[in-house]
């Protein structure tokens, strides 16, 4: 090649190798293929064996017809276009906006100025104050707005925290398996060590302290500097909602082992069985019961507008709260978030609306409640219906739905299916999910995308999609698949 031949500076072999190493199955090969099918169908192609693609691979509620909550969108519309506020009569009498919508928009605009302007790096102070009040009411313990950082969804908060936690390639983070792949992917990008610990499927995917200890001890013996433990509660992909004793045990172990706790609590309102218990509440409770002992247990807990009944993941709003952190470390975290300037301001406003929704007696409350409960009950009903379908399917085992937006059944496939998968260079669960997509248009994620106990196979599906037709098509596909590979 002559020295003048033009060539690009970047190629697949010279970019950051840690980006190449990261895996994110939620939007992997199956998702890409499902989008191709979607565009064929939109283009009028009719030789596919299905007439719609169901994206059950990702917790993206409004893509699957979940309606936005009216109060939220009405306030946001005024924040985006404040001149509407000078047409109060039209808003109230023609568009059905209630007075509290206008009042909230005016209040937020006073705090924010314009949603088109950068805010403080850690978020608008008045919004952090609202979050602190919400946390106090939720947990029964004080919260301080100085410890709250708004983020572009919880993902950006996780990214910040992992950047600060991982000092070098020997830094290790305990990550549940199965897990939402944000954690393993971010650790791969940071070139830090993921220290996997298995969740206990037999106990509804709870945390098993003996397993956590074993994973930690093994990593330490290998010389890894284990610094933190990630807990996803309620779980993704498992849907598990942790009982109080599991949470206490994790905090106690973190105290003994000097581990920072990263509590990913984005599904905190998606709980069907029992109640959501926050790590903050439990940590403060333990501090109260044992003066001094837990005062240095560092906890970062995350929340988001993406999930729950809000489902506004496109708006990229979230926050994290730091508990018991060293002020000098907090100052560095502040500096780190300031490098990205601030979280999207409209997303921050949505966080405010989420944590401070209309109260009983306020004009927008009844509709808000009706919409919120409607979404909650719809999700619960769909989760139960899907679970019932799995119960009928040969070789499929699935614990009853507890929370979040997912079911994660075990699939027992025959050696013949495993052989057919190997011939295509796929794992058996990937093969099963690919066959399901090709036959039904339903896109789910193979368990291997989240990690699973060796020798076990799963897939994850959301229960967000409306209707029952797609569930029927999974049952039919499964029967045929099992018959073909018997
Ligand atoms: C456990 C968990 N954490 C974080 C996220 C990211 O959420 P966000 O949209 O707030 O970035 C998700 C998204 O699915 C999730 O499941």
TrEMBL record:
Keyword annotations: Aminotransferase, Pyridoxal phosphate, Transferase
InterPro entries recorded: ALAT1/2-like (IPR045088), Aminotransferase_I/II_large (IPR004839), PyrdxlP-dep_Trfase (IPR015424), PyrdxlP-dep_Trfase_major (IPR015421), PyrdxlP-dep_Trfase_small (IPR015422)
Keyword Transferase annotated: yes
Domain of life: Eukaryota
Single GO molecular function: transaminase activity
Family, as annotated: Belongs to the class-I pyridoxal-phosphate-dependent aminotransferase family. Alanine aminotransferase subfamily.
Species: Lasiosphaeria miniovina
SUPFAM superfamilies assigned: PLP-dependent transferases (SSF53383)
Cofactor: pyridoxal 5'-phosphate
PANTHER family according to UniProt: ALANINE AMINOTRANSFERASE, ALANINE TRANSAMINASE
Gene3D superfamilies for this protein: 1.10.287.1970, Aspartate Aminotransferase, domain 1, Type I PLP-dependent aspartate aminotransferase-like (Major domain)
Oligomeric form and interacting partners: Homodimer.
Protein name per the record: Glutamate pyruvate transaminase
